[in-house]
Design a protein that fits this description.
- The protein has helices at about 1-5, 10-20, 25-35, 50-60, 105-115, 160-165, 185-190, 225-235, 280-295, 310-325, 345-355, 360-370, 375-400, 425-430, 435-440, 470-485; strands spanning about 45, 75-80, 115-120, 175-180, 195, 215-220, 265-270, 295-300, 405-410, 445-455, 460-465.
- The protein is an alpha/beta fold and about 500 residues long.
- It has a domain at about 1-255: Amidase signature (AS) enzymes (Alpha-Beta Complex), CATH 3.90.1300.10.
- It has an 11-stranded mixed beta sheet, sandwiched between helices.
- α6 runs parallel beside α7 (about 185-190).
- The mean pLDDT is about 95.
């Protein structure tokens, strides 16, 4: 039966469960076994075997009912940034060592209410700060597309563990968060689908904050349809989150399969950089041809302030992080440094934060504190927020002109070897987010889908950016591309 389960999409699993041809318990044990065999990948920080078995049994009991939720009995990997009641949540940081929340994030609560199963918490960059999953206190996750014959590759970040888990068939789907591309970039690197919803579509309650005006939860799945199914369950207004939008939630799956004839798709010329590899340009052209062949109208457009998106982001995000992470001081919970006789409370704060935070987190906290300080606030933070407004207006102007979505590459490169970041400056690492950051600044929905392989046989993704609250539209467009690009490759299981 295991061969039949391998790499099944949620839409397929859902049908098998409802027909009672497969049990959630059988499925859960299959994934738990895969996780055990794939420890080399380090995709999971914590495995919740006992809880998963219990949830699977409960889901199987529900299956006797004629009406069950779409995700009932479906096993998930949950990024270690979502608070899960009674189960470790550490945001891959030493400073949260031993932290077990006594409350549940709204997104995971929505999942569990539907009958979904939690296999465990997936690895990530510390506090979601990183583009390679190498800043994790638990060590880096390994991209399943690596091989025994090549260097281990990064799965991308910060949701690298979630991406690796889906790609390696260690769960049916996973949850990630996206602050500057942290769902879409790892999705591109691992050959899966990653969706960042509109800011406010999914509740942020119970998500450990990085940058509050940018963070958004979203699904990481094997197919576009699966992303639509998961989004339907995890999204919706939440009174516990002041940034959660009171807006009608459509059936995202219902729009999949509709004609895209006559839809106007923008091709922003600013995304064609001088350094762009030819193979990414070729893939972009392939995506354009697919949409055009399906009846869409492609229009060359301009987003003139795109060039300022990355510097604006790396002022705003660290500034918000500096504020959000000020609460971690070793007093109430998490890691506490050993203090010497004569040390005072300030010494405790300093030692705890110095020992508890990793280098990348400390770097961003220092940047954030600097740009918020007296004398620099106006010059940096206010200026960055003004640029953010201009970037948002660029998108709004295109949508007013009738553009319904934009097609771009997801990343400027494929997955790179673990350890390469040590040879690169922080700025070079930040350039990994060059195609994804603008949508976070503007609060727009965007999806990455696997579109092909490069010369080294590594996945590359294409990105569709949509209008606010129109996830259904980009999901449908992505589904058309998925059908025609026919990306069906899976990594070879070298880790077993």
């Amino acid at each position: 039966m295991n061969e039949n389960i391998s790499n099944l999409a949620i839409s397929q699993i859902r049908n098998l469960l409802r027909k009672r041809e497969l049990s959630s318990l059988e499925l859960t044990k299959y994934y738990l076994n895969n996780i055990e065999q794939a420890k080399t990948l380090n995709a999971y920080s914590f495995v919740s075997e006992e809880l998963a078995i219990s949830q699977a049994n409960e889901a199987d009991k529900k299956m006797v009912s004629a009406e069950v939720e779409d995700l009932c009995g479906i096993p998930f990997g949950i990024k270690d940034i979502f608070c899960t009641k009674g189960f470790p949540t550490q945001a891959a940081s030493k400073i949260l060592d031993g932290f077990i929340p006594d409350y549940e994030s709204t997104v995971t609560e929505n999942l569990f209410r539907s009958g979904a199963v939690m296999l465990g918490k997936t690895n990530m960059d510390e506090f979601a700060m990183g583009s390679s999953n190498e800043t994790s206190h638990y060590g880096p996750s390994i991209n399943p597309w690596s091989s025994e014959l090549t260097k281990a590759l990064v799965p991308g970040g910060s949701s690298g563990g979630s991406a690796a888990a889906v790609s390696a068939d260690l769960c049916a789907a996973s949850l990630g968060t996206d602050t500057g591309g942290s769902i879409r970039q790892p999705a591109s690197f691992t050959g899966i689908v990653g969706l960042k919803p509109t800011y406010g579509r999914c509740s942020r309650y119970g998500i450990i904050a990085f940058a509050s005006s940018l963070d958004q939860a979203g699904p990481m799945t094997k197919t576009v349809r699966d992303a639509a199914i998961v989004l339907k369950t995890i999204s919706g207004h939440d009174p516990k989150d002041s940034t959660s939008a009171k807006i009608n939630k459509p059936d995202f799956e219902a729009d999949i399969g509709k004609s895209i004839k006559g839809k106007k798709i923008g091709i922003p010329h600013e995304y064609k950089t001088e350094e762009m590899p030819q193979e990414i340009q070729d893939l972009w052209d392939k995506g354009k041809n697919v949409l055009e062949s399906a009846g869409a109208e492609l229009i060359d457009v301009s987003l003139p302030h795109t060039q300022y998106a990355l510097p604006a982001y790396y002022v705003i995000a660290p500034a918000e992080a500096s504020s959000n992470l000020a609460r971690y001081d070793g007093v109430k919970y998490g890691y506490r440094a050993q203090i010497s006789p004569g040390d005072n409370l300030i010494d405790l704060y300093e030692k705890t934060r110095s020992e508890g935070f990793g280098d990348e987190v400390k770097r961003r906290l220092l940047i954030g504190t600097f740009v918020l300080s007296t004398g620099f606030y106006d010059a940096y933070y206010i200026k960055a927020q003004q640029v953010r407004t201009l970037i948002k207006e660029d998108f709004e102007n295109l949508y007013k002109e009738g553009i319904e979505a934009l097609l771009t590459p997801t990343t400027p490169s494929s997955a790179f070897p673990i350890g390469k970041k040590d040879e690169m400056s922080p700025v070079e690492m930040y350039l990994n987010d060059i195609f994804t950051v603008p949508t976070n600044l503007a609060g727009l929905p965007a999806i990455s889908l696997p579109a092909g392989l490069n010369k080294q046989g590594l996945p590359l993704g294409l990105q569709l950016i949509g209008r606010p609250w129109e996830e259904a539209n980009i999901l449908n467009l992505a589904h058309v591309m998925e059908d025609n690009l026919e990306f069906s490759q899976n990594p070879k299981k070298w880790w077993t």
